[in-house]
């Protein structure tokens, strides 16, 4: 497949893997030193929850003389287990970022803002929301978010306002995976990484996308002898760490999994008892994969048939402690038009291994019975009759009401379809750089009558807002409680807000009061948390002492799943109803690269989280910009060497970025790390560093799942300097 074999040692010298692997042994990455404080100084340790990524590890925040001096993993937390990644360690540099937002701002011109008071901001925004609701209806307001702990408050606000248009980031991350497992398993299971004996990741870059608890567990599994296999067009951080790297042709993972199913069924390697007792549709699945032989898949994937057969046999031999990871953002999540079929095939293959509920297999979390806060939350909002702005939940999109299609926002604004969208509130999200076609999103924001951004920093989206409402950082605020396994965890402030900022619940309640919805928010966050904690015999005040409490939790019942049959549905009629196949079936990627272009693939890196950490001094020191990965055989034809400036162009945009010539990328593809290319001058560290991958990705919605299909993008590359 590749022009030449590559030495792992050689590649590491030039790879970002070094940064990821450095965190694996001790859980810490070396960071710039904090000025020492005299030992005699009184120290306060505050347990809380990190927010440097979406995992939300438990932390211990050390405070001296009112200043955060160190952040550590909380050993009582089931996720951190006393360790943090580089991002978690760097949290205080987000708190003390001199460029962070310090007060509410009102737009006065292109890139120009003036400080205003909270009272003024709420009053003016509230008046405009009331005006738009009267003129166009409540559905003219859309709320876009990267759902965090405050999400129930956001949804309550939108329900009270009368709009169905609360929309998260799922289509750019995990929607295909969720839709597949929700219909086939009744929910999305996790992986028992600590006890797995054979593990296959399809583009899931565990040590690059860093989910702290998963990394700690998979490292422990490898130390106990587990075999780890990375199937990835790129020698990612995890591919480097794994025992075997399979450099597959991009977008063809579905063929590989279908062929592995074929082998496991036809060689009677599946768990027959589990399949008979806990699944429906086996005969249909068997018939459906008849033609998907390893020889067939080899022509599509570029992987030898003997390798495909070997992987299937090795995986089956380790069952039930064997897993093909359901994935996250990768090939089963959002990257291809066939991501849904790939996720369905992965779900089916895991079922054949009989691993659901088994040690080292797939697991559902235990359930903690929390209290009901709804009696606190005012009158019951009136029923909403308007359809969602993106069509999710109806017709061919019937299965994705919970996920939506955020990437279609620019089109819907432009077309006024199915009705005019006139206002948007954006919280914890930067869609100008996280959604496809950045320029289209900017143009959509310019058309709206009201754009409100809630964030801790002036990101590329807030830069086009009419009003910016600064939220306090996670080290300065409370949030609704979180549950993980059999534990409840509290985020609480380690220090008071440094500037004129507010917690998310205060901002939402202030907006509600200003637009005439105050009766829905006559309660505090402490009231809300106490209502949730009441059945557990806890209060927010009690929980604050340790930050983490172990409680009784109900174990999942794997014999009665939340599906129509109560079993895993290998043959799933729900997909037929929306125009798909009864069992997983081959679908090619939407686009195919030719000799004069490349498939553009993108992904995450160990030391940054999307676009939220691009101005963090510690993390920028570790990785200040991204580079375009290109294979030597293709680079030579284009006259490109490592360090050369290249132009990458697609049908919707172009960027300039430094090249990185490496054998660690499939020749048909180029790769660019997500999260760089900030064009907001006030973010002085991030400004104009690297390239924004979203500038290149056209707006698409994959069938059934509505995924953004970011890797169905073709680009050309040329040297420009």
From TrEMBL:
Keywords: 4Fe-4S, Iron, Iron-sulfur, Metal-binding, Molybdenum, Oxidoreductase, Signal
Keyword Hydrolase: no
InterPro entries: Asp_de-COase-like_dom_sf, MoPterin_dinucl-bd_dom, Mopterin_OxRdtase, Mopterin_OxRdtase_4Fe-4S_dom, MopterinOxRdtase_cofactor_BS, Prok_Mopterin_Oxidored, TAT_signal, TAT_signal_bac_arc
Pfam families for the chain: Molybdop_Fe4S4, Molybdopterin, Molydop_binding, TAT_signal
Cited PROSITE patterns: 4FE4S_MOW_BIS_MGD, MOLYBDOPTERIN_PROK_1, TAT
Cofactor(s) in the UniProt record: [4Fe-4S] cluster
SMART domains registered for this protein in UniProt: Molybdop_Fe4S4
SUPFAM superfamilies, alphabetized: ADC-like (SSF50692), Formate dehydrogenase/DMSO reductase, domains 1-3 (SSF53706)
Domain 4Fe-4S Mo/W bis-MGD-type, chain residue ranges per copy: 43-99
Recorded GO MF terms: 4 iron, 4 sulfur cluster binding; metal ion binding; molybdopterin cofactor binding; oxidoreductase activity
Listed PANTHER family: TETRATHIONATE REDUCTASE SUBUNIT A (PTHR43742:SF9), TRIMETHYLAMINE-N-OXIDE REDUCTASE (PTHR43742)
NCBIfam families the record matches: TAT_signal_seq
Stated family: Belongs to the prokaryotic molybdopterin-containing oxidoreductase family.
The name this protein goes by in its record: Thiosulfate reductase / polysulfide reductase chain A
Source organism: Thermanaeromonas toyohensis ToBE
């Amino acid at each position: 497949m590749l022009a030449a074999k590559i030495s792992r040692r050689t590649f590491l010298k030039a790879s970002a893997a070094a940064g990821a692997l450095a965190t694996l042994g001790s859980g810490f990455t070396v960071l710039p030193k904090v000025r020492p404080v005299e030992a005699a100084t009184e120290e306060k340790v505050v347990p809380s929850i990190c927010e440097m990524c979406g995992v939300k590890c438990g932390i211990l925040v050390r405070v001296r003389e009112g200043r955060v001096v160190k952040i550590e993993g909380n050993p009582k937390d089931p996720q951190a287990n006393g360790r943090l990644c580089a991002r978690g360690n760097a949290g205080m540099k987000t708190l003390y970022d001199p460029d962070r937002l310090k007060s509410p701002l009102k737009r006065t011109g292109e890139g120009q803002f003036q400080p205003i008071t909270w009272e003024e901001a709420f009053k003016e925004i509230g008046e405009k929301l009331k005006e738009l609701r009267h003129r166009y209806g409540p559905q003219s307001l859309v709320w876009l978010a990267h759902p965090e702990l405050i999400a129930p408050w956001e949804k309550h606000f939108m329900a009270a306002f009368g709009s169905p248009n609360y929309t998260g980031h799922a289509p750019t991350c995990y929607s295909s995976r969720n839709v597949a497992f929700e219909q086939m398993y009744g929910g999305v299971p996790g992986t028992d990484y600590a006890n797995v004996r054979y593990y296959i990741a399809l583009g899931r870059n565990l040590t690059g996308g860093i989910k702290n608890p998963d990394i700690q567990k998979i490292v422990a599994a490898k130390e106990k002898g587990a075999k780890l296999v990375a199937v990835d067009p790129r020698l990612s951080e995890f591919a480097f760490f794994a025992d075997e790297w399979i450099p597959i042709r991009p977008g063809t993972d579905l063929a590989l999994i279908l062929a592995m199913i074929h082998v496991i069924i036809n060689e009677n390697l599946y768990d027959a008892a589990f399949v008979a007792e806990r699944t429906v549709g086996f005969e249909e699945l068997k018939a459906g994969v008849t033609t998907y032989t390893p020889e067939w898949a080899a022509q599509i994937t570029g992987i030898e048939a003997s390798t495909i057969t070997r992987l299937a046999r090795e995986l089956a031999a380790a069952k039930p402690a064997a897993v093909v990871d359901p994935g996250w953002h990768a090939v089963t999540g959002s990257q291809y038009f066939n991501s849904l079929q790939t996720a369905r095939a992965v779900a089916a293959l895991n079922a054949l291994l009989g691993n659901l509920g088994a040690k080292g297999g797939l697991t559902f979390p235990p359930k903690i019975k929390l209290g009901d806060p709804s009696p606190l939350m005012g009158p019951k909002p009136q029923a909403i009759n308007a359809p969602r702005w993106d069509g999710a939940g109806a017709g061919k999109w019937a299965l994705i009401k919970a996920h939506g299609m955020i990437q279609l926002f620019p089109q819907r604004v432009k077309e006024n379809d199915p009705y005019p969208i006139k206002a948007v509130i954006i919280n914890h999200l930067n869609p100008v750089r996280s959604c496809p076609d950045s320029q289209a999103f900017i143009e959509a924001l310019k058309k709206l009558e009201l754009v409100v951004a809630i964030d801790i920093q002036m990101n590329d989206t807030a830069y086009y807002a009419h009003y910016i409402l600064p939220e306090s950082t996670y080290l300065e605020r409370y949030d609704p409680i979180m549950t993980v396994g059999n534990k409840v965890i509290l985020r609480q402030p380690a220090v008071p807000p440094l500037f004129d900022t507010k917690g998310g619940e205060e901002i939402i309640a202030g907006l509600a009061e200003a637009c005439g919805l105050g009766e829905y928010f006559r309660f505090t966050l402490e009231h809300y948390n106490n209502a949730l904690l009441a059945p557990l015999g806890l209060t927010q005040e009690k929980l604050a002492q340790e930050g983490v409490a172990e409680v009784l939790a109900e174990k999942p019942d794997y014999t009665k799943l939340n599906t129509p049959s109560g079993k895993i549905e290998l043959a799933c009629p729900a997909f037929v109803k929306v125009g798909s196949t009864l069992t997983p079936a081959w679908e090619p990627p939407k686009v195919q690269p030719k000799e004069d272009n490349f498939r553009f693939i993108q992904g995450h890196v160990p030391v940054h989280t999307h676009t939220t950490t691009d101005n963090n001094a510690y993390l920028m020191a570790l990785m200040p910009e991204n580079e375009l990965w290109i294979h030597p055989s293709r680079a030579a034809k284009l006259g490109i060497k490592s360090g050369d400036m290249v132009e990458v162009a697609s049908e919707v945009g172009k960027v300039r970025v430094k090249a990185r010539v490496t054998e660690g990328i499939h020749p048909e593809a180029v790769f660019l790390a997500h999260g760089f290319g900030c064009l907001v001058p006030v973010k002085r560290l991030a400004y104009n560093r690297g390239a924004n991958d979203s500038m290149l990705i056209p707006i698409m919605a994959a069938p059934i799942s509505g995924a953004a299909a970011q890797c169905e993008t073709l680009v050309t590359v040329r040297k420009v300097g």
